[in-house]
UniProtKB/TrEMBL annotation:
Keywords: ATP-binding, Ligase, Magnesium, Manganese, Metal-binding, Nucleotide-binding, Protein biosynthesis. Binds 2 magnesium or manganese ions per subunit. Mg(2+) 1 binds at D248, E260. It comes from the Bacteria. SUPFAM superfamilies: Glutathione synthetase ATP-binding domain-like (SSF56059). It comes from Grimontia celer. This is Probable alpha-L-glutamate ligase. Its EC number is 6.3.2.-. GO terms for molecular function: ATP binding; metal ion binding; ribosomal S6-glutamic acid ligase activity. Mn(2+) 2 binds at E260, N262.
Length: 302
């Protein structure tokens, strides 16, 4: 096969691992920096060029699209789709997953468990907003936050009000969420490929910290997940229309709650924590789909 890896940097762990997996299986590959691509969308034959080269003959494209390049990255991916190339996750599903509000709305429609969550931009009545999500303690998040930055635990109503006011001053959209105390500063990352969780790790926050992000000092370890967790993770990926996804769960008294669904989940943490060849499993999945045209249908989300 000829596989395109949409990635801005071939030295990134995930990209290097995908390259290795392609090489081990004798596939041709090309690293494609989406931002450097230019496209002809007007012709009857859509095309993509990169440094003067016509990008043709690809069997599959693996999108590794960073949050900051979602818009143009998805446009390039869409162009590959128009050319009939199989894309591991399609552009619609990726843009959908990048919108946290839309993602949680979609998951709730499918009755997938999630923390009680309020969204607001300039809440006219902060007390009422807090009441809506069951009162403090609450977790307040900037919608555009990442790596745990902009995620605050407010234990009292006073604290919650000041944080919300401060975020409002930044003209940011915010999420106000029920605090899942019993998760104990841990979350579970389920790596979904197709309709299976192929690896799972537990990320545990440092003592005194509730955010389990590895960037915040959290540590990752192999974890056994329950059948219910497995089912929830697969259902969440499916609801988002993603073939490959990193589904983050909190373990709560009322079962697994989905925090978010990632469309370009990193490989380093999960491979290190579980010892699994996740990159290889991704390429195996592509081989299976590309070689059997009947299964090459897109996952649809209503
Ligand atoms: N409602 C909650 N209850 C308990 N803990 C939470 C809750 N929301 C978030 N956390 C903890 O805080 C961490 C960071 O939150 P979250 O994943 O929502 O933000 P982020 O990591 O900054 O965003 P992104 O994952 O998009 O980069 C989570 O991994 C989890 O450990
Ligand atoms: Mg997170
Ligand atoms: Mg994320």
């Amino acid at each position: 096969m000829k596989i395109g890896i949409l990635s801005r940097n071939e030295n990134l762990y995930s990209t290097r691992r995908l390259i290795e997996a392609c090489e081990q299986r004798g596939h041709e590959y090309k690293i494609i920096d989406a931002l450097r691509c230019y496209m002809n969308i007007n012709s009857t034959q859509p095309s993509i060029h990169l440094k003067g080269e016509d990008l043709v003959g690809f069997d599959a494209v693996i999108p590794r699209i960073g949050a900051s390049v979602t818009f143009y990255g998805c446009a390039v991916l869409r162009q590959f789709e128009m050319m009939g190339v199989y894309t591991l996750n399609d552009s619609v599903a990726i843009s959908r997953s990048r919108d946290k509000l839309r993602s949680l709305q979609l998951l709730s429609r499918k009755n997938i468990g999630m923390p009680i969550t309020g969204f607001a931009s300039k809440p006219g009545d902060i007390k009422d907003l807090l009441g809506m999500v069951g009162g403090t303690p609450v977790v307040i998040k900037l919608l555009e936050g990442t790596q745990g930055i902009g995620v605050v635990l407010a234990e009292t109503r006073k604290a919650a009000e000041s944080v919300i006011e401060a975020f409002m001053g930044l003209k940011a959209n915010i999420m106000v969420q029920e605090y899942i105390k019993e998760a104990g500063g841990a979350d579970i990352r389920c790596f979904v490929i197709g309709d299976k969780v192929i690896a799972a790790m537990k990320r545990q926050a440092l003592p005194g910290e509730f955010r389990s992000n590895l960037h915040r000092g959290g540590s990752a370890s192999l974890v056994r997940i329950t059948p219910e967790e497995r089912k929830t993770a697969v259902a969440a990926a499916k609801a988002m229309g993603l073939h490959v996804a990193g589904v983050d769960l909190l373990r709560s008294e009322r079962g697994p709650l989905v925090m978010e669904v990632n469309s370009s989940p990193g490989l380093e943490g999960i491979e290190t924590a579980t010892g699994k060849d996740v990159a290889g499993l991704i390429i195996d999945h592509i081989e299976k789909i590309v070689s059997s045209p009947r299964t090459r249908t897109r996952v649809k989300s209503k």
